[in-house]
Specification:
Layout: E1 3-7, H1 12-25, E2 33-38, H2 41-53, E3 61-65, H3 73-76, E4 79-83, E5 86-94, H4 99-112, E6 116-123, E7 129-130, E8 135-139, H5 141-145, H6 151-162, E9 165-169, E10 186-190, E11 193-198, H7 206-220, E12 224-229, E13 231-232, E14 236-237, E15 243-245, E16 248-253, H8 263-273, E17 278-283, H9 285-288, E18 299-301, E19 311-316, E20 323-325, E21 330-338, E22 343-351, E23 360-366, E24 371-375, E25 386-393, E26 398-402, E27 407-409
Parallel strand pairs: 1-2, 2-3, 5-6, 8-9, 11-12, 16-17, 20-27
Antiparallel strand pairs: 1-18, 4-5, 7-8, 10-11, 13-14, 15-16, 19-21, 21-24, 22-23, 22-25, 25-26
Length: 410
């Protein structure tokens, strides 16, 4: 991970949880940045003081000054994919009437120069989880939120935008968990491992049956299943609502009477499940009554796959063998570009496929906005050429992507 997004919202007790998490994330084990979203400069100053006092490495804190409605950034924050080796965002409509939250992914997309795609679904991000081998999971809350779509159509949307095959579970009863989100009782921690809640004091209950069926299914699919206790006392207390960040795993603990005795058992389970990670307990007592814990209040930002080098991917057009273009024709050239800091300029070229002729510039040093309308010239020194896009960063590093096919001007 490059970092975790957090929204500086809620009362002091909630913000203390964020500060404690930020300290771990920016430490040597978490080894990541915190992208802290603050409403304005005044809130930034207050946040800065709180984080400093909590021992956060402030050199790893990047402030995003943008108003939000709530702390629940898992539900509305940007969800990342890689396209052609470059980072991009797949967004959805937040399932709450919170317009500032819902608009945040678009703002972050522009800020970080990461393209954004809208999959057309309504949901909360805490109800969608996946491994890295094309399997994803959610509860059928998604059906209620998208009544204009069939279940098959919902699954098809996720497949089209994220290349995953989705399995849907029945949600918990709302009197047990008002969110009905999957992360409140199941967390995928590897391509072959999953943590699922167990209900020691409510065996045979609806929520226990849902967890048992899910555990059986996941075991059949080759996952090693780890079980952590869950109770419904004054709230739905869960240990699956945890956060992984590089070699760090943050899990909730509780001081609530009736729950504190389970903290050690949950810790032991997580340590058994992830022996190569550092497991840290963060007290989530003051936020769990709002039907959320640690996973609900962060969103992951992955690293640039190319390290300090930029990455670039020509989306299209890709040409043919060859594809013929007409003089004066308007052609939209689309690309993605990525960097550990920022791509500062883009060059577009007509380039001979075998390097026999010098490339001809289409445009030099244009902005990295992902698209350019090219007017095809009436003639060219190149009888046959590929489209080429170069991405440059401030350090002078470059990356290149070519069309797969070639072009000719009629």
């Amino acid at each position: 991970m490059d970092g975790l997004l957090m929204a500086w919202e809620g009362d002091f007790s909630w913000k203390s949880i964020l500060a404690n998490m930020a300290r771990e994330v920016t430490g040597p084990v978490g080894d990541a940045q915190v992208y802290m979203v603050v409403d304005d400069q005044s809130e930034k100053n207050t946040c800065n003081t709180t984080l400093t006092n909590a021992g956060v490495d402030m050199s790893e804190v990047f402030y995003v000054v943008r108003p939000t409605d709530t702390i629940w950034i898992r539900d509305y924050g940007p969800r990342y994919i890689y396209q052609g080796g470059c980072r991009a965002i797949v967004d959805h409509t937040y399932n709450r009437p919170r317009p500032l939250d819902d608009a945040f992914p678009s703002h972050f997309s522009n800020l970080r120069q990461h393209p954004l795609y809208d999959n057309g679904l309504i949901h909360g991000g805490g109800n969608f989880h996946l491994d890295s081998i094309e399997r994803s999971y959610a509860t059928r809350l998604i059906n209620n939120e998208n009544q204009g779509l069939t279940e098959a159509q919902i699954i098809a949307r996720w497949f089209a935008f994220q290349n995953v095959n989705t399995t849907l579970f029945n949600p918990f009863p709302q009197n047990i968990d008002s969110t009905q989100h999957l992360d409140m009782w199941m967390q995928i921690i590897a391509d072959n491992k999953v943590v699922i809640s167990d209900w020691p004091t409510a065996q045979g209950s609806t929520q226990d049956q849902i967890c048992e069926r899910a555990a059986s299914l996941m075991a059949q699919r080759g996952y090693t299943v780890y079980r952590t206790p869950a109770l419904s006392i004054s709230s739905h207390f869960t240990y699956t609502n945890a956060v992984m960040c590089n070699d760090l795993v943050m899990i909730p603990k509780y001081s609530q009477q009736g729950m504190s005795s389970y903290n050690a058992q949950a810790l032991a389970t997580w340590e058994s499940a992830m022996p190569d990670k550092d497991i840290v307990q963060i007290d989530a007592t003051n936020i769990i009554s709002a039907a959320g814990a640690l996973h609900c209040i962060v969103m992951h930002v992955p690293k640039n796959l190319n390290g300090a080098q930029p990455g670039v991917y020509l989306i299209g057009p890709q040409g043919g063998s060859p594809e013929f273009l007409l003089p004066g024709q308007q052609v939209e050239i689309e690309w993605l570009a990525d960097d550990d800091s920022a791509v500062t300029a883009i060059d577009l070229w007509m380039d001979a496929p075998f390097g026999s002729t010098r490339p001809v510039p289409i445009i030099r040093n244009t902005t990295n906005d992902g698209t350019f309308i090219w007017t095809v010239p009436s003639a060219s020194t190149l009888r046959r050429f590929k489209l080429r896009v170069d991405a440059k960063d401030a350090q002078g590093n470059t990356a290149t992507s070519y069309s797969s096919g070639t072009f000719r001007i009629q």
